[in-house]
UniProtKB/TrEMBL annotation:
InterPro entries: Cobalamin-bd (IPR006158), Cobalamin-bd_sf (IPR036724)
Pfam families assigned to the protein according to its UniProt record, in alphabetical order: B12-binding
Protein's name according to its UniProt entry: Methylaspartate mutase S chain
Record-level Gene Ontology MF annotations: cobalamin binding; metal ion binding
Stretches assigned to the B12-binding domain: 15-149
SUPFAM superfamilies: Cobalamin (vitamin B12)-binding domain
Length: 160
């Protein structure tokens, strides 16, 4: 595992919201806890669904938090493709507009099999990232884009 920077290194208050969890058949909890802690240290609000989370539960969380910057899913046991096979259909059904980011050990064996990334994109994964640091940086970029796209609000009684 790469060394995580201290969580106070780049605190950006109210950096946005992220839905996090581990795929349905997967009980590996350590990275999930580390990533949640790391992202909270960067200022993100983390809706952590924990291990063994079916796609339908990620969708339920998205229904409740439609301003989420991303849904981030970990998979360590090598069964990502099977666990996420309903993702595309459920993303359409729940009108998911944020990216679905996947990370971990994504196939059985020490080496990723050829064509796996394309297959994962085919089932609805938007992007594969390797480390919590990459995830944090990408979420900060998404937060900036979300803010830039937000309409400017004028406080009541403000500018006339
Ligand atoms: C601890 C452990 C367990 C524990 C888990 C306890 C717990 N509550 O978490 C127990 C004993 C329960 C377990 C069970 C199993 N395990 Co296990 N386990 C491990 C072990 C030794 C360490 C995993 C760990 O915690 N690493 C520390 C974390 C911090 O690192 P990480 O998981 O690699 O995550 C990093 C990156 O992958 C990435 N990352 C992770 N998630 C995400 C998510 C996103 C969005 C992003 C961007 C990045 C990211 O960032 C992290 C930090 O760098 C690994 C071997 C190893 N040395 O890695 C095997 C390993 C993951 N297990 C494995 C297997 C096969 C199993 C079992 C199927 C074994 C079995 N036959 O029963 C079961 C599966 C259970 C299940 N239903 O999921 C295999 C997976 C092989 C594969 N993918 O091909 C491994 C790699 C061992 C091996 N070499 O064979 N396991």
């Amino acid at each position: 595992m790469s060394k995580l920077p201290p969580t106070h290194a780049a605190i950006v208050p109210d950096a946005g919201k992220v839905i996090l969890g581990v795929a349905a058949s997967d009980a590996h909890a350590v990275a999930n806890h580390l990533i949640a802690h790391y992202l909270r240290g960067l200022g993100f609000q983390v809706i952590n669904l924990g291990v063994c989370t079916p796609v339908s539960e990620f969708m339920g969380a998205y229904d409740e938090h439609r301003d989420a910057l991303a849904i981030a899913i970990g998979s360590m046991n090598g069964h990502a493709l099977q666990d996420l096979r309903e993702l595309k259909l459920l993303k359409q059904r729940h009108q998911v507009r944020c990216p679905v980011i996947l990370g971990g050990n994504l196939s059985v064996g020490s080496r990723k099999r050829d064509g796996l990334e394309a297959d994962l994109q085919e089932v609805g994964v938007t992007m594969i990232l390797e480390s919590p640091e990459q995830l944090g940086q990408h979420l900060l970029r998404l937060r900036d884009q979300q803010r830039a796209a937000a309409p400017i609000r004028v406080a009541a009684g403000g500018a006339r």
